[in-house]
Design brief:
The complex is a heterodimer of chains A (442) and B (478). Chain A is built from 16 helices and 19 strands. Chain A is of the alpha/beta class. In chain A, helix 2 packs across helix 3. With 478 residues, chain B is α+β, with helices and mostly antiparallel strands. Chain B is built from 12 helices and 15 strands. In chain B, the strands form 4 sheets. Chain B has a 6-stranded antiparallel beta barrel. In chain B, strands 4-3-2-5-6 form a 5-stranded mixed sheet, sandwiched between helices. Chain B has a two-stranded antiparallel sheet with strand order 1-7. Classes of the chains: A alpha/beta (442), B alpha+beta (478). Chains A and B meet through helix 5, helix 6, helix 7 and helix 11 of A and helix 11 of B.
Chain lengths: 442, 478
């Protein structure tokens, strides 16, 4: 039973974007979406509609995103010729061997003859001087692309469609971003940011839907998208997962957390208050114990796509962390526990991915004090919006205390309106409030 | 904070003694650097109230501006500094040499940049004319202020950053920004506890701002000076003005004397460390950059007051590349910093227990490839299989983690040598070796398009007209 009003509102928004894009009165259009809104289907709709009349580039920041776009488009219209322009070092043709309408090349002049070219932003940048201008440029994940990448490719078409998720992690740098903050020339702004700053009249169309998140997560996710109103495509009861009682002994709190998550879509497993480093072995033990117990209890899921209960696979479960060290610790420990297929990665690298169940290692877990990195609302947003069924947050009892009182000072920059640290502070507090009724102590 | 600095910080606190974080000094120090202290007026970030510099503890040059809010007096003071400092700078400059400035903290470095920014765009003619030397020094300061963004640059060395890079104290990061307290913590007088030494040294003011109570005292002195200056001219008025100015100079001298001693003590602390192998290479880069800038300025080329989008895109890439190269140079130069990486789970350290030079594997095309195997016994490892590492003693030897076995005595990690096995010496059994993340590869960047794209060009209405800024602010002084 999908939520028909929400879906029809979202369809109308997609139609609005595509028809304005086709009408060509606006040099650029931005489609702003929450996590799991089905951005790719919007990009697909735009490409398919424009395919007959327009020569175009379709781009995104990473190779994986391009591969997903190619597969989606090739399936939607197997007669549509698509050319993938790839880096010399990365030939993706093995991925598309079953798709007759897809050709791969690393040579810009070869691609130049074809009407629809798909390439990463970097590849387009390297090939820009060998590629003629086209009618249209479509960029997916445009909030992950920075102004510099956009600068390289923006001249390639007079008409642009930028699609993206504004809640994820913004482009980052290893050097001091404060050097450029607030300047119109800031190379670290998002592609959407620089476009709207220079051309404030550019239409921004919201996609008011999340197809991935269950209704239990949609209300929480709204904290990360101020000014964007959206609802879950599914209704309560459309999805469910069930667990056996489980054999053998397990810590009661782990079982309780799993029960709570399967019932309500959320659980907050809290370790005792202790000052710890980012590489906290107790948190690793708790997370691995939780996942091992999950599979001991034979989890089965059903949803609007597959309506009968079927076994949850380890590869459909992910752990989201903040640091690579945490990832490496978990990877090693999960492998030793025989859970090699469970996905573990940092929030940065989980952007755009989808899982059935996610365990999130809370960014503030056991920190002695808070900082901009760990408060980043984008990081928390990515962690809490990857799941279709449930998310279990693992933290420490002291985490909430870190958010008592006044937020730490953050640098302000003339002309830079965003307050990532304060937004993060707010979002973290809202999330901890929300999790209160799902809290279980280990 | 890394595991290592956390541990060292805790140990420093318990033992009340600063802990060395590095084996080497990663900052090149010239034989005769120019130590410079600069002070601004509270709330006037572009003002120059007092400046002192010199090539040694006894070579102290001091210029004070009695009323920095008066533009004429500011220019006079800046000119006095320029006429003395420029010859020192010129003397240090040669095709293979550049002047090296040492300042107490990053805030002073920022202040230098602002002083430069203030006069770099002035003219020698017209209503707001300033002497040519003022512009020349200002342009050099403006350049240094921008160049300071370059990771690992050593043309200007902020002492607090340099000291707290090499030593971990029991103080917080904020407390470590006070040069006097920091250097007292690192090297307290004999028999004095480090905490007490820092507490006692805290009143010394290395600038660029001073204690608000001191600002109050200064305000009274400046007020007296202004009264005398504005009185109708007479011999008595001149005398009163000179006396008032003398009082201001005495105020600043009292601040400067202890700070000056602290500054040179910090320099000798740094100098007591042995220089890291690649620090001189970075100094050579700096000398090149300095000479290119001088050349540019002599050719009459002007800097832009505000960088363009293209320049900032280029700058960001360059800074990120430099940062990556610098971080890599640190860990390959320095066993202590390498150990910090190992504790962060980014490398391995241990004894080589087995080397098999004859090991081989089949390539995808069926050819037999020599892939020597090295087994290292560590106390722990979290590195997943296929992690690529390099041997710290010779980064040309590249390896890949093949498998990890845990046992009572630690962890044995099997490493497959993937590069350098033919031409380079490999680690041998019983060697104690570090394996670290590979140094950054050279990245060829795409050309930036000639035309600035529409998306990066503001619509005309969004650009606000700029107001002239270099005006006499004294008009607004009560």
């Amino acid at each position: 039973m999908t939520n028909k009003t929400v879906v029809s509102k979202a369809d109308a928004a997609v139609e609005q974007v595509v028809s304005r894009f086709m009408a060509g009165k606006d040099p650029a259009i931005v489609a702003r979406a929450p996590a799991g809104a089905g951005k790719s289907s919007l990009v697909r709709a735009a490409v398919l509609r424009a395919a007959e009349k327009k020569r175009m580039f379709v781009s995104a920041p990473t190779n994986a995103q391009i591969a997903d776009l190619v597969e989606g488009l090739a399936r939607a219209n197997p007669a549509l010729p698509l050319v993938v322009l790839h880096a010399t070092s990365q030939d993706p043709s093995y991925r598309f061997s079953a798709l007759k309408n897809v050709t791969c090349t690393s040579k810009a002049d070869q691609a130049d003859a074809e009407p629809i070219v798909l390439a990463t932003l970097d590849k387009l940048a390297y090939s820009a001087d060998k590629l003629g201008a086209r009618d249209a440029l479509i960029i997916d994940e445009a909030y992950q692309a920075d102004s510099a990448k956009f600068f390289h490719v923006s001249n390639l078409a007079k008409r642009q469609l930028l699609v993206g998720d504004s809640g994820q992690l913004s482009p980052f740098t290893t050097v001091d971003a404060g050097l450029w903050r607030g300047l119109a020339e800031d190379p670290l702004q998002t592609a959407v940011g620089v476009l709207l700053r220079n051309h404030p009249s550019t239409p921004v169309v919201p996609l008011p839907i999340t197809r991935r998140l269950p209704p239990s997560a949609a209300s929480l996710a709204r904290h990360f998208y101020p000014g964007l109103d959206f609802d879950a495509a599914t209704s309560v009861g459309d999805r469910a997962w069930v667990l056996d009682a489980g054999k053998g002994k397990a810590t009661a709190a782990l079982d309780a957390a799993l029960n709570e998550a399967s019932k309500s879509g959320w659980a907050h497993l809290v370790l005792p208050d202790e000052p710890v480093l980012v590489s906290d072995p107790a948190a690793v033990e708790a997370i691995v114990g939780l996942i091992a117990r999950l599979f001991e209890r034979q989890p089965r899921v059903r949803c609007e796509k597959v309506k009968t209960l079927h076994a949850l696979q380890p590869k459909q479960v992910a752990v989201a962390v903040s640091h690579t060290l945490q990832r490496d610790m978990l990877r090693t420990t999960l492998d030793e526990a025989g859970l090699t297929d469970v996905h573990v990665d940092t929030a940065n690298r989980l952007q755009g991915l989808e899982f059935e169940v996610v365990v999130a290692w809370h960014p503030l877990a056991g920190l002695p004090d808070v900082d901009a990195f760990h408060l980043d609302p984008g990081r928390l947003c990515v962690m809490l919006t990857r799941h279709r069924h449930a998310c279990i947050v693992v933290g420490r009892a002291s985490d909430a205390d870190l958010l008592d009182g006044v937020a730490p000072p953050a640098p302000a920059f003339l002309g830079y309106e965003e307050e990532p640290l304060l937004d993060g502070w707010e979002a973290h507090r809202a999330v901890l409030d929300h999790l209160e009724k799902h809290r279980l102590f280990l | 904070m890394s595991v290592m600095t956390t541990l060292l910080g805790a140990r420093a606190h318990v033992e009340s003694r600063a802990q060395r974080r590095t084996t080497f000094r990663h900052v090149h120090l010239e034989k005769k650097p120019i130590l410079l202290f600069g002070y601004q007026l509270a709330g006037e970030p572009f003002s120059m109230a007092s400046v002192a510099w010199g090539l040694g503890p006894k070579d102290l040059h001091h210029v004070v501006c009695p009323e920095p809010r008066n533009r004429t007096l500011s220019v006079t003071a800046f000119h006095a500094m320029a006429s003395e400092l420029l010859p020192v700078i010129d003397k240090a400059t040669s095709p293979k040499g550049a002047p090296q400035f040492v300042v107490p903290n990053p805030a002073t470095l920022d202040l230098l940049g602002r002083w430069g920014r203030r006069f770099a765009f002035s003219e020698t003619t017209g209503e707001w004319a300033v002497p040519a030397d003022v512009i020349r020094l200002a342009r050099l300061f403006f350049f240094l202020g921008r160049y300071a963004r370059m990771p690992g640059q050593q043309l200007v060395v902020p002492l607090t950053d340099a000291l707290s890079f090499h030593w971990v104290t029991g103080q917080s990061t904020l407390e470590n920004q006070q040069l006097a307290a920091l250097s007292a913590w690192i090297r307290p007088d004999d028999g004095v506890d480090a905490h007490d030494a820092a507490l006692a040294a805290e009143h010394v003011e290395p600038g660029p701002v001073t204690d608000p109570n001191e600002d109050e005292k200064l305000a009274t002195l400046v007020e007296a000076y202004n009264l005398a200056r504005r009185a109708s001219p007479s011999a008595a008025q001149k005398k009163a003005m000179a006396a008032a100015e003398q009082a201001i100079v005495a105020h600043w001298t009292a601040h400067l004397q202890p700070a000056w001693a602290v500054g040179w003590r910090a320099v000798s602390l740094l100098r007591s460390l042995e220089e890291a192998p690649t620090a001189p290479e970075r100094w050579t880069d700096d000398v090149g950059a300095w000479n290119r800038e001088l050349q540019r300025q002599q050719e009459g080329k002007r800097s832009r007051a505000r960088a363009t989008t293209r320049q900032l895109i280029w700058e960001r890439q360059m800074l990120e590349d430099r940062q990556a190269r610098l971080e890599s140079a640190w860990i390959y130069d320095d066993p202590m910093l390498a150990a910090e990486q190992v504790l962060e789970g980014r490398g391995l350290r241990g004894k080589i227990i087995k080397v098999d030079l004859e090991a081989s594997e089949k390539s995808a095309k069926g050819r037999t490839l020599t892939r020597p195997i090295v087994v290292i016994r560590c106390t722990g490892s979290l590195l997943p299989a296929q992690t690529r590492l390099c041997w710290a003693s010779n980064a040309k030897v590249t390896v890949e983690v093949e498998s990890t076995t845990r046992h009572k005595n630690g962890v044995d990690v099997v490493l497959k040598v993937t590069g350098g096995m033919k031409k380079e010496r490999l680690p041998e059994v019983d060697d104690v070796a570090f394996f670290l993340r590979p140094p950054p590869a050279f990245i060829k960047r795409p050309h930036l398009p000639e035309a600035i794209p529409w998306s990066h060009t503001p619509e005309p209405a969004t650009v606000a007209p700029l107001q002239p800024i270099d005006q006499d602010v004294e008009a607004s002084v009560p």
